[in-house]
Amino acid sequence: MSGALAVLSPIAYSPVAEAGVISVDCGGAQWEVTIDDESVVMIGKNHAHVSIQRYCLDMGHPLAPQVADVMWGAGYVCNDLNTGKPIGPANVALAIANYMSANY
User: How many CB atoms are located within 10 Å of the residue 51 CB?
Assistant: First the structure.
């Protein structure tokens, strides 16, 4: 028997927006967050995993890249997928959730 084998993935991949850089004021400390839209994996409605890179302008160097587990809607959650701990500062986590809400 010959022919193509179809492989179905249980993960929905839907990049919608272009790569985003958001600026966040955290009580005087300035942060930039790069959100890699090509890495977005939709887990469900208003729930996605996405690769991010945080950069504190005051520290002068980027933090290690992370995969964020983000949920938005009636409230928000933004945790590091590997550790389960919240991504901080809180204003950065909220900005990530707002970005995802606006674009996905």
Answer: 17
Which of 27, 58, 43 minimizes the C-alpha distance to 104? 43
Q: What is the pLDDT of residue 18?
A: 60
pTM score, whole prediction: 0.79
Backbone φ, ψ for residue 81 (5° rounding): -60, -35
Gap between the Cα atoms of 18 and 73, Å rounded = 21
Tell me the C-alpha distance between 14 and 68, whole Å: 16
Residues 6 or more apart whose CB falls under 8 angstroms from that of 95 comprise 22, 24, 33
What is the 8-class DSSP label of residue 12? B
